[in-house]
Amino acid sequence: MPRHFLRDDDLAPDELLAVLDLADEMKADRHRYRPLAGPQAVALIFDKPTLRTQLSFSVGISELGGQPVVVDGRLAGIGQRESIADVTRVVSRQVAAIVWRTFGQDSIEEMAALSPVPVINALTDQFHPCQILADLQTVREHKGHLAGLSFAYVGDAANNMAHSYLLGAAAAGLDVRLAGPPEYQPDPRIVADAERIAAGTGASITVTDVVEKALDGADVVVTDTWVSMGQEAEKDAREAPFLPYAVTADSLEHAASDAIVLHCLPAYRGKEISAEVLDGPRSVVWDEAENRLHAQKALLAFLLERSV
Ligand code: CP
Q1: I want to staple 226 with a disulfide (CB 3.0 to 4.6 A). Which of 29, 71, 168, 242 is the partner?
Q2: From CA 165, how far away is CA 118, in angstroms rounded?
Q3: What confidence tens digit (pLDDT) does each residue in 237-259 have?
């Protein structure tokens, strides 16, 4: 049976830590592990724009001894030109794993249900779990540990990053705080899932519309664009509600004096984060972007090893 990674809680808390440990090893010695030697191919399918995800998976698959094959999902027309089922049957005969960035979580779940090889979520409208692996690796590098740290995400608490932080940071035992406008709060089903995970890891979950409550003494401060992919037509309407949630030098006064700042990128300076913060000494966003490479290599190696 293949092991898939469709949402953050597809890794149990102990498995998450094992992947992060392996990511650290892979970062220290980039060419030591070659589970894709052959080379075996991995399909990278993108229905939405990308820089970091395509780059880091392509480089990572090559470093693991494999052959990345990028497929333009808009040309393939998955679900329109051809059914998800038929695409899965064709692609999975030729590759060791499938990485897919698409719209609905239901689409990637449909692919995974049919695929004999691991399927990895490279971002859907609901989750972005690969990003959270890199973020947790980055936090641990800078803070030395994860459990017990206070982790404040402010901005669009209804988007895929917010949902993935709820699940992934709960699994890592963090004090997870999400603050967003009342009309942009997370899916309550995912909050409930995060609370279930937290009960077993010692994490805590706070969801609020009060930005200061999330930021109070926080060790880690995180934000994301206010306009996720597919929401471009709502760009102007989405600005006003989020203005109080911007990460700025002033708002960081509420956080711990040694707080670090993450952003998955691309960032919009002067919108969700000020240039002063993004380009300032507390920002670890370039480490975070690099760690996509190491974390995803570790994930691929883990899933391939656990798939029988
Ligand atoms: N953070 C992230 O997923 O970047 P891309 O959209 O450029 O892949």
Answers
A1: 242
A2: 22
A3: 888 999 999 999 999 999 999 99
